[in-house]
Amino acid sequence: MNLILPYLVLLILITDINSYNILVFCPLFGHSHSTYFGKLADILTEAGHNVTLFTPTIIDEFRNHSYTKLTKDVVHLDPNPKLKSIGDLIAGNSRYWKQEFSILEIPQSARFFQSVTGELHNVLSSNLPLLDKLKKKKFDLFLFESIFTCALPLIDYLEIPAFIVAQSITFESSSMRAMGEPVMPSYIPDLITQSSDKMTLYERFLNTAIQLLQHYFNYSPEYYLSYNNPNKRIYSMERLSDASFVFTNSNPYLDFPRAIVSKNIPIGGISVDTENLKMGKLSEAWDQVLNRRPKTFLIAFGSVILSKDMPFEYKLVDFQVFELSKVIVLCFVRVSLARAMEQFSDVTFIWKYEDDDTERKKTEKAKYFFKRERQFSADPRLSAFMTHGGLGSVNEVSYLGKPTIMCPIMGDQMRNAKMLARHNGSVEISKHSLGDSKIVEEAFRKVIYDESYTVAAKRLAEHLQNQPVKPKDLFLKHAEFAARFGKLPSLDPYSRQMGFLEYFLLDLLFIAICFITLLCLSLYFLAKFVWRLFRSKSKTE
Ligand SMILES: *[C@@H]1O[C@H](CO)[C@@H](O)[C@H](O)[C@H]1NC(C)=O
Ligand SMILES: *[C@@H]1O[C@H](CO)[C@@H](O)[C@H](O)[C@H]1NC(C)=O
Ligand SMILES: *[C@@H]1O[C@H](CO)[C@@H](O)[C@H](O)[C@H]1NC(C)=O
């Protein structure tokens, strides 16, 4: 310890010398997005930089939530009535419990997201006095999420010399293609693709279709107008490629392996704080719950799609209804998550459930409901999890090393579930199977009693905890490098400027085919000519 101390002091001194002014742009749009950006802001603050978090509101309910612990300089911006009404449309996803996201919805959702960023652009450009105040802080670096390209004219207005992009998701083909990254749909599942990297012909077709649709119906408007010069267009995808680095929420030890460009810095898992999770103090009551049976199983479906909105026949929590009405018994006799739970007398099931209906809780004898799972997810007495496969949960269970049942509902959750399943520590079940207690029971049985899942999950956790460079160090060192040196054109791959034919060498292939054809033809005619010559000679003889 005594040996380390002088180095620590030195380290603090060094970071003090190179302190930068950094602006983190975090529109309040999704809880997980903001949590991720709040975490990144705090990491920069902790390292001694002056960080300002700029949070224009899109969805009202997040307005008063504090996403940072250490970063105190938070600048709010309220929406105009139009952006507010757009934000109100976003809330409410419960229909996805039963419905699939069809690829035909891509154009529509792209158009919708364009209206979000377009309107946010209008809100920003009509609040110049606020922006002028920000400008006075003379930022060295700007950090934002690539889906919010409306940040690009803001960077110009604030005259910030460099920016870095972070993505709270694992992979998004449009912005990565803009950076010059190879995004082959033959083996890289797109964000909303439901397949792993090993795809059948049909799955490759779907994956390619998704990528093409997302390319042509981009989430971002083609260009924005500069705030102070309405004749100047700022082209989103072109300008995005000026990013010094792109931080993706993908971890090479967890995600599907693929080729990436040098400016892509994968920092997946950066928001998992295992130390903090393990230090969480349990209340007496919860302690007793965890001691009740030899095994404890945690069910949590995240904060976007709520368990309370789960279709009745999937969960059937209310046993009173079950007993009172024989008709309902007949209808639902083979269904329900709850029935599957009943088969395990040595397991306590804990279910994150957002309803305050105490009557319902009373009828539940073997199960406990709670609203937040964080307080004990790292407890060694927890045997296994069931989650919806949100990236936050997937990263967390990977670090904790618990076998998991993944039941993806929507968005990138299908991809996340496949990504985790590759490591053999989890079982995936379809949301449509939740109504079938036999399938659910079998999945429970696997992750609770089959040791191989626990062994595989533990191995993955060991890999993540011992990865050669910690995601936090990767992020901090690269962000500081960008703040110091600004734009990094040396990292811009030339492939970005190549056309399709050139990139895939199709022009070369065409020439090669022409050449070979020509060669074959000339050989053929030469042979014919020689043959004739030979024949005419033998005739004259
Ligand atoms: C960071 O903020 C502190 C306190 O407001 C200030 O003294 C310091 O000069 C700032 N650092 C930079 C690089 O502007
Ligand atoms: C958030 O806080 C502000 C000011 O404290 C208050 O006016 C507003 O009603 C709050 N908004 C929500 C959605 O709670
Ligand atoms: C998972 O299991 C399969 C089949 O047994 C094996 O081929 C594969 O290497 C395993 N994956 C990992 C990450 O261990």
UniProtKB/TrEMBL annotation:
<feature type="signal peptide">
    <location>
        <begin position="1"/>
        <end position="19"/>
    </location>
</feature>
<feature type="transmembrane region" description="Helical">
    <location>
        <begin position="503"/>
        <end position="527"/>
    </location>
</feature>
<keyword id="KW-0808">Transferase</keyword>
<dbReference type="GO" id="GO:0015020">
    <property type="term" value="F:glucuronosyltransferase activity"/>
</dbReference>
<dbReference type="GO" id="GO:0016020">
    <property type="term" value="C:membrane"/>
</dbReference>
<keyword id="KW-0732">Signal</keyword>
<dbReference type="Pfam" id="PF00201">
    <property type="entry name" value="UDPGT"/>
</dbReference>
<keyword id="KW-0472">Membrane</keyword>
<comment type="similarity">
    <text>Belongs to the UDP-glycosyltransferase family.</text>
</comment>
<dbReference type="InterPro" id="IPR050271">
    <property type="entry name" value="UDP-glycosyltransferase"/>
</dbReference>
<protein>
    <recommendedName>
        <fullName>glucuronosyltransferase</fullName>
        <ecNumber>2.4.1.17</ecNumber>
    </recommendedName>
</protein>
<dbReference type="InterPro" id="IPR002213">
    <property type="entry name" value="UDP_glucos_trans"/>
</dbReference>
<keyword id="KW-1133">Transmembrane helix</keyword>
<keyword id="KW-0812">Transmembrane</keyword>
<keyword id="KW-0328">Glycosyltransferase</keyword>
